[in-house]
Specification:
This protein has 2 domains: about 5-225, Alpha-Beta Complex (Spore Coat Polysaccharide Biosynthesis Protein SpsA, Chain A); about 235-335, no CATH class. Strands 1, 2, 3, 4, 5, 6, 7, 8, 9 and 10 form a 10-stranded mixed β-sheet that branches. It has helices at about 20-25, 50-60, 75-85, 105-115, 155-160, 175-185, 185-190, 200-210, 235-255, 260-280, 285-295, 300-310, 315-335, and strands spanning about 5-10, 35-40, 65, 90, 100, 120-130, 135, 145-150, 170-175, 210-225. It is globular. It contains 13 helices and 10 strands. The protein is of the alpha/beta class and about 350 residues long.
Length: about 350
Amino acid sequence: MKEPLISVIVLTYNQEDTIARTLDSVLAQYCSAPFEVVVGDDCSTDGTRHICEAYAKQHPDTIRLMPATANKGVVDNYYDCFEACRGEYIADCAGDDFWTDKYKLEKEWKVLAANANVTVVHTNWNRYYEDTKREVANKETPFASPITRGSLMLESIITQTTAPVIHLCTAMYRAKVLRDFYNTNRALLRNKEFGCEDLQIAFVLAHQGDVAYLPETTLDYSVGHTSVSCLPDSAQQFRFVQRTASLSWLLASHFNLDTPRTRAFFALKSYELLMHAFRCHNTALRSEALEYANAWRVALGKKARCVMWVTKCPLMWRAALLLRKGLVGVKGAMHPFK
Protein backbone atom coordinates (compact mmCIF):
# COMPACT_ATOMS: atom_id res chain seq x y z
CA MET A 1 0.00 0.00 0.00
CA LYS A 2 1.30 3.42 -0.96
CA GLU A 3 1.63 6.08 1.73
CA PRO A 4 -1.51 8.23 1.36
CA LEU A 5 -1.10 11.75 0.03
CA ILE A 6 -4.68 12.61 1.01
CA SER A 7 -6.59 11.69 4.18
CA VAL A 8 -10.38 11.82 4.28
CA ILE A 9 -11.96 12.20 7.72
CA VAL A 10 -15.44 10.72 8.16
CA LEU A 11 -17.13 11.41 11.49
CA THR A 12 -20.24 9.45 12.39
CA TYR A 13 -22.59 8.87 15.29
CA ASN A 14 -25.84 6.86 15.14
CA GLN A 15 -26.08 7.14 11.36
CA GLU A 16 -26.76 3.56 10.37
CA ASP A 17 -29.16 4.76 7.64
CA THR A 18 -26.62 7.02 5.92
CA ILE A 19 -23.04 6.00 6.73
CA ALA A 20 -22.82 3.44 3.92
CA ARG A 21 -23.92 6.10 1.45
CA THR A 22 -21.20 8.42 2.74
CA LEU A 23 -18.45 5.81 2.54
CA ASP A 24 -19.58 4.71 -0.93
CA SER A 25 -19.33 8.30 -2.17
CA VAL A 26 -15.77 8.58 -0.85
CA LEU A 27 -14.66 5.20 -2.16
CA ALA A 28 -16.08 6.11 -5.59
CA GLN A 29 -13.52 8.92 -6.00
CA TYR A 30 -11.31 8.83 -9.10
CA CYS A 31 -8.07 10.27 -7.79
CA SER A 32 -4.56 9.78 -9.16
CA ALA A 33 -3.13 10.50 -5.70
CA PRO A 34 -3.34 7.73 -3.08
CA PHE A 35 -5.83 8.44 -0.32
CA GLU A 36 -6.95 6.91 2.95
CA VAL A 37 -10.24 7.18 4.81
CA VAL A 38 -10.07 7.69 8.59
CA VAL A 39 -13.45 6.88 10.15
CA GLY A 40 -14.31 8.09 13.64
CA ASP A 41 -17.41 6.41 15.06
CA ASP A 42 -18.27 8.14 18.33
CA CYS A 43 -19.61 5.13 20.27
CA SER A 44 -22.81 4.77 18.25
CA THR A 45 -25.65 2.92 19.95
CA ASP A 46 -27.24 1.70 16.72
CA GLY A 47 -25.72 -0.38 13.92
CA THR A 48 -23.34 2.31 12.65
CA ARG A 49 -20.14 0.76 13.98
CA HIS A 50 -21.06 -2.66 12.59
CA ILE A 51 -21.41 -1.09 9.13
CA CYS A 52 -18.10 0.76 9.51
CA GLU A 53 -16.36 -2.45 10.57
CA ALA A 54 -17.71 -4.24 7.51
CA TYR A 55 -16.40 -1.49 5.22
CA ALA A 56 -13.00 -1.47 6.95
CA LYS A 57 -12.76 -5.25 6.52
CA GLN A 58 -13.74 -5.00 2.86
CA HIS A 59 -11.31 -2.13 2.13
CA PRO A 60 -8.37 -2.72 4.51
CA ASP A 61 -5.89 -0.78 2.35
CA THR A 62 -8.06 2.34 2.30
CA ILE A 63 -10.28 2.55 5.38
CA ARG A 64 -8.93 2.88 8.92
CA LEU A 65 -11.61 2.71 11.61
CA MET A 66 -10.57 4.45 14.82
CA PRO A 67 -10.62 2.25 17.95
CA ALA A 68 -13.89 2.04 19.86
CA THR A 69 -14.00 4.35 22.88
CA ALA A 70 -16.54 5.99 25.15
CA ASN A 71 -18.59 8.77 23.57
CA LYS A 72 -16.33 11.83 23.30
CA GLY A 73 -18.27 14.42 21.27
CA VAL A 74 -17.69 15.82 17.81
CA VAL A 75 -14.70 18.03 18.70
CA ASP A 76 -12.55 15.32 20.30
CA ASN A 77 -13.69 12.82 17.69
CA TYR A 78 -12.54 15.11 14.89
CA TYR A 79 -9.15 15.96 16.35
CA ASP A 80 -8.41 12.35 17.29
CA CYS A 81 -8.99 11.51 13.62
CA PHE A 82 -6.94 14.54 12.57
CA GLU A 83 -3.99 13.39 14.67
CA ALA A 84 -4.23 9.96 13.05
CA CYS A 85 -4.20 11.29 9.47
CA ARG A 86 -1.08 10.51 7.43
CA GLY A 87 -1.87 12.57 4.36
CA GLU A 88 -0.33 15.87 3.32
CA TYR A 89 -3.86 17.05 2.50
CA ILE A 90 -7.08 16.48 4.42
CA ALA A 91 -10.71 16.38 3.28
CA ASP A 92 -13.90 15.81 5.30
CA CYS A 93 -17.26 14.16 4.75
CA ALA A 94 -19.79 13.83 7.57
CA GLY A 95 -21.55 10.53 8.09
CA ASP A 96 -24.91 11.80 6.89
CA ASP A 97 -23.59 13.78 3.88
CA PHE A 98 -22.23 12.45 0.60
CA TRP A 99 -20.04 13.62 -2.26
CA THR A 100 -21.68 13.96 -5.67
CA ASP A 101 -18.62 14.62 -7.84
CA LYS A 102 -16.36 11.60 -8.40
CA TYR A 103 -13.44 13.90 -9.23
CA LYS A 104 -13.71 16.10 -6.12
CA LEU A 105 -10.45 14.95 -4.54
CA GLU A 106 -8.56 15.07 -7.83
CA LYS A 107 -9.68 18.62 -8.64
CA GLU A 108 -8.93 20.00 -5.19
CA TRP A 109 -5.58 18.26 -4.86
CA LYS A 110 -4.44 19.76 -8.17
CA VAL A 111 -5.44 23.25 -7.03
CA LEU A 112 -3.41 22.92 -3.84
CA ALA A 113 -0.45 21.38 -5.65
CA ALA A 114 -0.37 24.26 -8.14
CA ASN A 115 -0.81 27.11 -5.63
CA ALA A 116 1.62 27.12 -2.71
CA ASN A 117 -0.08 30.05 -0.98
CA VAL A 118 -3.51 28.38 -0.94
CA THR A 119 -4.23 26.71 2.40
CA VAL A 120 -7.72 25.42 1.59
CA VAL A 121 -9.88 24.88 -1.49
CA HIS A 122 -13.66 24.47 -1.30
CA THR A 123 -16.68 24.17 -3.62
CA ASN A 124 -20.38 24.82 -3.82
CA TRP A 125 -22.90 22.34 -2.39
CA ASN A 126 -26.57 21.30 -2.25
CA ARG A 127 -28.95 20.97 0.63
CA TYR A 128 -30.34 17.45 0.50
CA TYR A 129 -33.72 16.88 2.15
CA GLU A 130 -33.79 13.31 3.46
CA ASP A 131 -37.58 13.05 3.60
CA THR A 132 -38.21 14.08 -0.03
CA LYS A 133 -34.77 13.33 -1.56
CA ARG A 134 -34.84 16.86 -2.96
CA GLU A 135 -31.66 18.80 -3.75
CA VAL A 136 -31.60 22.59 -3.37
CA ALA A 137 -28.51 24.44 -4.55
CA ASN A 138 -26.70 26.70 -2.10
CA LYS A 139 -26.85 30.26 -3.43
CA GLU A 140 -24.74 31.94 -0.74
CA THR A 141 -21.23 32.26 -2.13
CA PRO A 142 -19.85 35.60 -0.86
CA PHE A 143 -16.31 34.89 -2.12
CA ALA A 144 -16.73 33.24 -5.50
CA SER A 145 -13.39 34.30 -7.01
CA PRO A 146 -11.02 31.46 -7.93
CA ILE A 147 -8.58 32.64 -5.25
CA THR A 148 -9.26 35.09 -2.40
CA ARG A 149 -6.86 36.45 0.17
CA GLY A 150 -7.96 34.66 3.32
CA SER A 151 -7.69 37.72 5.55
CA LEU A 152 -10.56 39.30 3.60
CA MET A 153 -12.85 36.42 4.62
CA LEU A 154 -12.26 36.39 8.37
CA GLU A 155 -15.05 38.79 9.29
CA SER A 156 -17.56 36.82 7.19
CA ILE A 157 -16.49 33.47 8.64
CA ILE A 158 -16.78 34.65 12.22
CA THR A 159 -20.24 36.20 11.66
CA GLN A 160 -21.77 33.50 9.44
CA THR A 161 -25.38 32.76 10.38
CA THR A 162 -27.26 30.95 7.60
CA ALA A 163 -24.60 29.10 5.60
CA PRO A 164 -20.89 28.46 6.16
CA VAL A 165 -18.53 30.63 4.13
CA ILE A 166 -16.35 27.53 3.73
CA HIS A 167 -18.31 24.30 4.01
CA LEU A 168 -15.63 21.99 5.37
CA CYS A 169 -17.24 18.87 3.88
CA THR A 170 -16.62 20.35 0.42
CA ALA A 171 -13.04 21.32 1.20
CA MET A 172 -9.49 20.05 1.14
CA TYR A 173 -6.75 21.72 3.17
CA ARG A 174 -3.05 21.48 3.91
CA ALA A 175 -2.59 19.31 6.99
CA LYS A 176 0.65 21.05 8.00
CA VAL A 177 -0.98 24.48 8.17
CA LEU A 178 -3.61 23.33 10.64
CA ARG A 179 -1.21 21.05 12.50
CA ASP A 180 1.29 23.85 13.12
CA PHE A 181 -1.44 26.08 14.55
CA TYR A 182 -2.94 23.16 16.51
CA ASN A 183 0.38 22.36 18.16
CA THR A 184 0.70 25.89 19.58
CA ASN A 185 -2.97 26.86 20.05
CA ARG A 186 -4.60 23.55 20.95
CA ALA A 187 -7.11 25.08 23.40
CA LEU A 188 -8.42 27.47 20.76
CA LEU A 189 -9.23 24.61 18.40
CA ARG A 190 -9.90 21.62 20.61
CA ASN A 191 -12.40 22.58 23.26
CA LYS A 192 -15.49 20.38 23.42
CA GLU A 193 -17.47 23.28 24.89
CA PHE A 194 -17.50 24.78 21.38
CA GLY A 195 -19.81 22.03 20.10
CA CYS A 196 -18.36 22.21 16.58
CA GLU A 197 -15.01 21.78 14.86
CA ASP A 198 -15.48 23.35 11.43
CA LEU A 199 -15.81 27.07 12.20
CA GLN A 200 -12.43 27.39 13.90
CA ILE A 201 -10.72 25.28 11.23
CA ALA A 202 -12.08 27.42 8.39
CA PHE A 203 -11.07 30.60 10.24
CA VAL A 204 -7.51 29.45 10.94
CA LEU A 205 -6.96 28.21 7.38
CA ALA A 206 -8.20 31.52 5.95
CA HIS A 207 -6.03 33.45 8.41
CA GLN A 208 -2.93 31.51 7.37
CA GLY A 209 -3.15 31.95 3.58
CA ASP A 210 -5.25 32.20 0.44
CA VAL A 211 -8.56 30.40 -0.14
CA ALA A 212 -9.43 28.80 -3.48
CA TYR A 213 -12.98 28.22 -4.68
CA LEU A 214 -14.33 25.88 -7.37
CA PRO A 215 -17.87 26.79 -8.52
CA GLU A 216 -18.98 23.23 -9.19
CA THR A 217 -21.10 21.33 -6.67
CA THR A 218 -19.44 18.36 -4.95
CA LEU A 219 -21.56 17.70 -1.86
CA ASP A 220 -25.12 16.92 -0.80
CA TYR A 221 -25.48 18.29 2.73
CA SER A 222 -28.17 16.38 4.60
CA VAL A 223 -30.90 18.50 6.24
CA GLY A 224 -34.40 17.96 7.58
CA HIS A 225 -33.41 15.89 10.60
CA THR A 226 -31.97 16.42 14.06
CA SER A 227 -28.25 17.24 13.95
CA VAL A 228 -25.64 19.31 15.76
CA SER A 229 -27.02 22.51 14.19
CA CYS A 230 -30.68 21.45 13.89
CA LEU A 231 -31.94 20.71 17.38
CA PRO A 232 -35.49 19.93 18.51
CA ASP A 233 -36.08 22.37 21.37
CA SER A 234 -35.20 25.86 22.52
CA ALA A 235 -33.02 24.74 25.43
CA GLN A 236 -30.79 22.78 23.09
CA GLN A 237 -30.84 25.62 20.57
CA PHE A 238 -29.80 27.99 23.36
CA ARG A 239 -26.77 25.83 24.09
CA PHE A 240 -25.83 25.53 20.40
CA VAL A 241 -26.02 29.30 19.86
CA GLN A 242 -24.10 29.95 23.09
CA ARG A 243 -21.32 27.53 22.16
CA THR A 244 -20.83 28.70 18.58
CA ALA A 245 -21.08 32.40 19.49
CA SER A 246 -18.60 31.90 22.33
CA LEU A 247 -16.22 30.29 19.85
CA SER A 248 -16.63 33.26 17.50
CA TRP A 249 -15.93 35.60 20.41
CA LEU A 250 -12.73 33.75 21.34
CA LEU A 251 -11.53 33.83 17.73
CA ALA A 252 -12.37 37.53 17.42
CA SER A 253 -10.54 38.28 20.66
CA HIS A 254 -7.51 36.13 19.83
CA PHE A 255 -7.07 37.71 16.40
CA ASN A 256 -8.10 41.25 17.45
CA LEU A 257 -11.09 41.34 15.13
CA ASP A 258 -13.46 44.07 16.33
CA THR A 259 -15.63 45.73 13.66
CA PRO A 260 -19.17 47.11 13.38
CA ARG A 261 -20.15 43.84 11.72
CA THR A 262 -18.76 41.66 14.51
CA ARG A 263 -20.39 43.85 17.15
CA ALA A 264 -23.75 43.56 15.35
CA PHE A 265 -23.27 39.78 15.19
CA PHE A 266 -22.76 39.41 18.93
CA ALA A 267 -25.75 41.68 19.58
CA LEU A 268 -27.84 39.37 17.38
CA LYS A 269 -26.59 36.28 19.20
CA SER A 270 -27.41 37.86 22.56
CA TYR A 271 -30.96 38.51 21.35
CA GLU A 272 -31.25 34.92 20.10
CA LEU A 273 -30.15 33.60 23.49
CA LEU A 274 -32.76 35.77 25.23
CA MET A 275 -35.46 34.52 22.87
CA HIS A 276 -34.54 30.87 23.44
CA ALA A 277 -34.65 31.49 27.20
CA PHE A 278 -38.03 33.21 26.77
CA ARG A 279 -39.48 30.25 24.84
CA CYS A 280 -38.21 27.85 27.51
CA HIS A 281 -39.61 30.01 30.32
CA ASN A 282 -36.23 29.46 31.98
CA THR A 283 -34.94 32.16 34.35
CA ALA A 284 -31.52 30.53 34.65
CA LEU A 285 -31.03 30.69 30.88
CA ARG A 286 -32.23 34.31 30.89
CA SER A 287 -29.55 35.19 33.43
CA GLU A 288 -26.96 33.29 31.44
CA ALA A 289 -27.93 35.13 28.26
CA LEU A 290 -27.40 38.45 29.99
CA GLU A 291 -24.03 37.28 31.30
CA TYR A 292 -22.90 36.46 27.77
CA ALA A 293 -24.16 39.79 26.47
CA ASN A 294 -22.04 41.47 29.13
CA ALA A 295 -19.00 39.29 28.37
CA TRP A 296 -19.33 40.07 24.66
CA ARG A 297 -19.66 43.78 25.49
CA VAL A 298 -22.97 44.00 23.65
CA ALA A 299 -25.21 47.06 23.52
CA LEU A 300 -28.64 45.40 23.50
CA GLY A 301 -31.08 46.60 20.84
CA LYS A 302 -34.76 47.43 21.21
CA LYS A 303 -36.01 43.88 20.65
CA ALA A 304 -33.60 42.43 23.19
CA ARG A 305 -34.55 45.09 25.76
CA CYS A 306 -38.23 44.29 25.14
CA VAL A 307 -37.59 40.60 25.87
CA MET A 308 -35.71 41.57 29.03
CA TRP A 309 -38.64 43.73 30.16
CA VAL A 310 -41.26 41.03 29.50
CA THR A 311 -39.24 38.33 31.26
CA LYS A 312 -38.71 40.40 34.41
CA CYS A 313 -42.28 39.67 35.51
CA PRO A 314 -43.36 36.01 35.78
CA LEU A 315 -47.02 36.82 35.07
CA MET A 316 -46.17 38.92 32.04
CA TRP A 317 -43.80 36.21 30.83
CA ARG A 318 -46.52 33.52 31.03
CA ALA A 319 -49.02 35.81 29.31
CA ALA A 320 -46.57 36.53 26.49
CA LEU A 321 -45.95 32.80 26.01
CA LEU A 322 -49.69 32.14 25.80
CA LEU A 323 -50.08 34.96 23.30
CA ARG A 324 -47.22 33.62 21.22
CA LYS A 325 -48.70 30.12 21.28
CA GLY A 326 -52.01 31.49 20.05
CA LEU A 327 -50.38 33.47 17.24
CA VAL A 328 -48.37 30.44 16.13
CA GLY A 329 -51.57 28.37 16.09
CA VAL A 330 -53.39 30.95 13.99
CA LYS A 331 -50.49 31.17 11.56
CA GLY A 332 -50.43 27.38 11.25
CA ALA A 333 -54.16 27.27 10.54
CA MET A 334 -53.83 29.94 7.84
CA HIS A 335 -50.87 28.22 6.17
CA PRO A 336 -51.34 24.48 6.90
CA PHE A 337 -48.93 23.27 4.23
CA LYS A 338 -45.96 25.49 5.08
